[in-house]
Structures are given as C-alpha cells and as structure tokens.
Write a structure and sequence with these properties.
The protein is built from four helices and 28 strands. It has 467 residues and is mainly β. The radius of gyration is 24 Å and the shape is globular. It is an enzyme of class 1 (oxidoreductase).
C-alpha cells in the first residue's frame, strides 16, 4: 500500500512538553483508570513499570512510566554477548581511553563503509569519562548508518540516556512508546532502557551524526535566572510520541521460532537475545519517563545587546547536572544563527582555558571562530578542547574580527555548531585517535601557530604599589 501524507501525519503525532506527565493509548480503553496495576489490566494487557530514577528519588526528580503491553519484556531467552572484534569497523568499543592535553580536531567522519551497517553497528565510541557500571560520567559517539535497522530488531542501552544529534540523514525512530522523526537540526533523547529501532527516513540518504550517552542523571532544562520564565529552549517545544503498537506475539515466549532480536548495550558491550514476540507491543503508556525530540530552530537565542561576548552557557539547550550545583556532567549547547550587535567588542569567542572539557561538532554551515574548508572545522567533523587546553579563534579569524566594522551582523546564517561540555576530563578512544583516521595533523599549529604579536608596550615591566 502506498504511504500517504495521512499515514505520515498519523505516524508522527506528538504530545508536547518537557518533563511533563503524559499519557497515550493506541487502543481505546487500554489505560486503566485511577490505578496502575489492576488485577486484570484492560484488553488483556500486562502492566509493566519502567523506572528512570530510584523509586524513592525526590518527587521533582522522580521519573517513571507505566507501559501496558501485550507481553511483558522479561519474556525472552537469556542474552548472549555479541563477540566484539575491535579491529572491525562494526565495533562499538572504541578501545581504551587516552587522556591528552592537546587540542584535537577531526575531519568529517566517514559515512558507513558497508551497505550492511545500521545505527547500532555504525555507532563508535569516540570519547568519554567515567563508568557506566558506577552510573557516573558520559560517553560520546559518532554514528554512520547506510541502512535501517532490521524490522525485527530492537536496541536498548542499560548504560544511560542517549542524546542523538543527526548531521546528515533523517532518522525515523520507532520506540516502545511510539515514533519520532528526527531530522538534521533536530535532536532526540532516548532514555536508558527504552527499546528502539532506528530506520533511515529516506533509505537513499545515509545517516551520520553525533551522540552523547549520559551515564548519570537525566537532562533538564537549564535555569533561566534573570532571563525570566521563557527563553532558550522552551518546555512546550519538546515533543514526545503517542503510543503505537503491533500485535505480533508468536505462540509462547520461548518457542523455537524466534522472530525478533533485542540487542542490549550493557557496560559498553553488546548482548543479544531472540524472542518470538515484538518488543513494540506497548498499546498504552503514562508517565514522565519518555523519549522526546526537539527542533533546534525553535531555540530562543539570547545574547549581548550592549558590549562583550557572554559565556556560552546562554546557548544551553539541555543540561545534565552533577552533584555540584551549577556544574554539569554534560551540557548540550548550540551556536545557532543570531544577531551580533556588540559595540567595541571582539565578537567571536575569546581565547580561553576552561575547567570544563569541550567537544564540538558542526551540523551545518560554518563557525565564526574557525576557518572552514579542507583541514578546517567543517560539518560532520569535530573538535575536543579538554580541561585547561587553551583555545580560541584561529589566527585568521582573530585578525578578521579585530578589524571588522562593528555594524549589526547576522552571524552563521544557516549554520549550527554544537558543544558537549562536561565538568569531567574527557579521554579519547583508540578509535577516535587512530582507527577513524580523521585526526587533523598540526591542528594547533595551523590554528594558532600564526597568532601575531600586537603588543605595543615596553620590553619588560613589573607591577608597582600604589602610593
Ligand atoms: O571554544 C569554543 O569555540 C566554544 C565557546 C564559545 C563561546 O562563545 C565562548 C566560549 C567557548 O568555549
Ligand atoms: Fe571553548
């Protein structure tokens, strides 16, 4: 049957709200009224709770959802570890982490080299910190997929919440809780444990992008302080799916004729099991633990309308707090097109050494502090400026901005860079340093080797006490 616009609209209906309490049923009467687990849930469904925080987490942090499904997700044979050959391009494990103070930049990462590579086999661990077994830290990933995941395969991660940033190719993501269409310039978050399948929205358009896995805590909207009650990413612009299910449940859960594969990411290793029933059999759900998407074009950018370049925290879309107030394990920050009007101001980012680490990527266009083109900072590439690794505009961008006429300028029309910023020192995997073969030789020399001396003062000096 040809797919019609009506089908597409039905498939991608959303409910709006960040951290809201939502509910959806794909068959009338599937949600129990006024209780969660009746003796016999409606329509012969099973009730299953999915928790995203400890049962006893404070109310304002508590995240749970109730799923009403045809069969419970425990009904599967044991998981078996998938052999991981780290020399294979399909290896998720990036290898040991290397901690180095040098500035690093990567050319655009390759698209999938094999037509058989899907989202899971094309997911590469590039950098990270901490440990999923301790639920501490984060992992950063690059993905490249040439094809949709098999229609009978679902994936989940026990390691954390995955923030996906498509750079090329729209993703049609089927989750247990419903569908999300995520195009470049949109992002989504799939919480820990939720099973999903990543399909290419256009099978002719291979997908490539970035991802961040949060081993601890969950993303929240940043505080707005004096900005007030609206601004940056507004809660109502986050979209959650509506329930969508298929009734394909085999005969018994353990009969030999297995039809569906479930792949689990567990401590950065992959395990799989096969079961006769589809994991996408959730007929209804309610709760505040759900996958969501956000269109970066809806970001309400705020900046200086007087002078000086503010901290990039004003561009924070989502923030995952650490235990320390105001300090994030992971901030997701974007640099969208915006007006620069600052008077007597060096408008690009200042030179800096940061206690936080900064992993940056470019979704489209250019970035005002770095030259583009071959060997520059280009879409699909990345950079890492680790804890206290000095950086800032390259020499060329500095000279340009120093001399620029300070009229109002729209910077970055049609462009969008982003940053995964973390309070943790970030290690780079073997894949990131070597196997991907994208590290730019001489990045720091090309960028800052040529910074000019503009000093106009004397050859020596010493501070004097005021008399
Ligand atoms: O390093 C970067 O390009 C990211 C960045 C941007 C900015 O406007 C201020 C500080 C900062 O780290
Ligand atoms: Fe920076």
């Amino acid at each position: 049957m040809p797919v019609t616009i009506f089908d597409i609209k039905e498939k991608y209906r959303y409910q709006n709200g960040f951290d809201s309490y939502l509910e959806s049923e794909a068959a009338p009467g599937a949600l129990p009224i006024a209780q969660n687990s009746p003796q016999k849930p409606p329509l012969g469904l099973y009730a299953e709770k999915l928790s995203g925080t400890a049962f006893t987490a404070p109310r304002h942090e508590n995240k749970q959802s109730w799923l009403y499904r045809i069969l419970p997700s425990c009904s599967h044979p044991p998981f078996i570890e998938v052999a991981d050959d780290t020399s294979s391009p399909e290896s998720l494990t990036g290898g040991k982490l290397h901690y180095i103070p040098n500035q690093l930049r990567w050319d655009p990462f390759d698209h999938a080299s094999s037509p058989a590579t899907d989202f899971v086999s094309g997911l590469h661990h590039i950098a990270g910190a901490g440990d999923p077994t301790l639920k501490q830290g984060l992992g950063m990933y690059i993905y490249a997929a040439a094809k949709s995941m098999d229609a009978h395969t679902a994936f989940y991660s026990a390691d954390g919440d995955l923030l996906i940033v498509p750079q090329e190719g729209a993703l049609d993501i089927r989750t247990e809780l419903g569908y999300l269409l995520v195009r470049p310039m949109e992002i989504c978050v799939i919480p820990r444990g939720i099973r999903y399948q990543v399909l290419l929205a256009d099978p002719a358009q291979p997908a490539r992008g970035y991802a961040l896995e949060l081993y601890q805590n969950h993303f929240a909207l940043p505080e707005l302080g004096p900005i007030g009650s609206n601004g940056l990413a507004n809660a109502r612009d986050f979209q959650a799916p509506v329930a969508a299910f298929t009734a394909d449940h085999g005969t018994t859960a353990f009969d030999g004729t297995t039809a569906y594969t479930v792949v689990a990411k567990f401590n950065n290793a992959l395990f799989s099991t096969r079961q006769p029933h589809t994991p996408f059999d959730v007929v209804a759900w309610h709760g505040n633990y759900y996958p969501y998407k956000y269109d970066l074009g809806r970001f309400n950018t705020i900046g200086s309308i007087s002078y000086d370049h503010p901290d990039p925290s004003i561009f924070t879309v989502l923030s995952a707090p650490s235990e320390r107030l105001g300090t994030a394990v992971a901030d997701f920050v974007i640099f969208p097109p915006r007006w620069l009007v600052g008077e007597d101001t060096f408008r690009p980012p200042w030179y800096h050494r940061n206690t936080m680490s900064e992993f940056m990527g470019l979704i489209q266009g250019g970035y005002d502090a770095k030259k583009g083109g071959a060997g520059g900072f280009v879409p699909g590439g990345a950079s890492l400026h680790n804890v206290m690794s000095g950086h800032g505009p390259d020499a060329e961008s500095y000279e340009g901005a120093r001399e620029a006429e300070l009229k109002p300028v729209k910077v970055g029309g049609g462009s969008c860079a982003f940053m995964f910023e973390s309070c943790l020192m970030v290690g780079v995997t073997e894949w990131g340093l070597k196997r991907c073969r994208k590290v730019q030789e001489g990045y720091s020399e090309h960028s800052w080797g040529g910074v000019k001396v503009h000093w106009t003062g004397a050859g020596e000096g010493r501070g004097h006490l005021l008399e």
